[in-house]
Amino acid sequence: MRNGQLLIGGEWCEAASEATLTTVDPATGEALATVADGGEKDVDAAVAAARAALRNPSWAAMPPSERARLLWRVSELLERDADAFAELETRDQGQPLPIARAVSVAGAAEHFRYFAGWVTKIDGRVPAHSVPQALNYTTRVPVGVCGLITPWNFPLLIAAWKLAPALACGNTVVLKPAEQTPLSAVRLAHLFAEAGFPPGVVNVVTGGPDAGRALVDHPGVDKVSFTGSTEVGRDIVRAAAGNLKRLSLELGGKAASVVTADADLDVAVPANLRSGINNSGQVCGASSRFYVARSRYDEFTQRLADAAAAVRVGPGLNVGTQMGPLVGEEHLARVDGYVRSGVSQGATIVTGGKRADGDLAAGSFYPPTVFADARDDMRIAREEIFGPVLTVMPFDDLDEIAARVNDSEFGLVASVWTRDLALAHRLAEQIQAACVRVNIVASLDPAVPWGGVKASGWGREMGAEAIEEYTEVKSVWIGLQ
């Protein structure tokens, strides 16, 4: 089925090379759609269109209130087409339909609505200074042409949380979705034209790694916002040195969850399981390594394994499915490789540990897997698996736990489960992560900043911090003599 072309300068077109790629339904292994496989020439054209639109008065001189109305209109159109977007996201990515509807589509609409409210509030200040007979004021101006590169785990939602602030600040964009899951981005692009955005403000180039590299390397791109692996993030840093373009990098994670002796396991077990298997564990902030007080270790591990074994795995469109497939066979092989490494290094599989068979054999299904008897130095405890693999380890002394949590290259998310409020605050301060959750598995919210420290990234998405990421501060001096 032909389902997507490139959007460049307001026109839909084939790739210059006429190359295509096929996206696959991970629940069945069957081809779902064919889209254009863009390359360097297509990125050149898209960047040129974005550069021209950046200078076009129809966008550059558009009143902020009108730009806000356009963003708000996109949120309305998303809600109008919510069922179609949710089904498309489920078929292309695999997430259960209720997640696609309530998280991906509803969350995307909320991001456009939230940042529509920011458009008329992006202003500067008048600093107090010591220069006589002079006035200084600052303004925030668009960074320019932004290359937005999105991953395959939440294609629609992550595209929205990059597009909304970038456009709110008056930038123009080239969106490059992951080649595994391009369909919702293509459909979303149609909504921008319907909402009334001028041609060239939003451009979409579907394609593989070559298109992404061309966008990062392009001298006409002023900023790159990337969500994906730490390895690719490092490559982007090196490539961006050419023209010192601005970068926002939301990279990998290996979220720790600390369960103390006084934790309420009736809350902690199901919440941690939800976090660990959300979107089949394909979430950078998913709880994946658990440090449990030794007095509660056996009970927590068994309860977690029992709950994991009861999870209903199946196609995302099936009623009652709690966990869908992994995104594809290549990724399934990667996840299974980590499981095999855990066994070879001496950890014990309590439940799961192999791909689903029977009626699910044709799809990329991997049931929730729980490891016990693990150590901090094992790959399953140190490296990002990006699958429903949960590693449980005991601790004896609360004084040691922050150091063990922090002994990781990642610093995206951590959680603490305790009834001791003072302990919660102390651990939240000691843990090196950009987000610490206490007795909660919190959802993302467009008003709250999101990002990582250490190898989990640079910069922040969402909230007022996103406005800073997509603007430059200009200082203006006025002599008063």
TrEMBL record:
Pfam families associated with the record: Aldedh
Q: Which PROSITE patterns match?
A: ALDEHYDE_DEHYDR_GLU
**Active site (UniProt):** E250
What are the Aldehyde dehydrogenase domain coordinates in residue numbering?
12-476
Which protein is depicted? Aldehyde dehydrogenase family protein
What's this protein's family per the entry? Belongs to the aldehyde dehydrogenase family.
Origin organism is Nocardia jiangxiensis
Keywords for the protein's UniProt record, in alphabetical order: Oxidoreductase
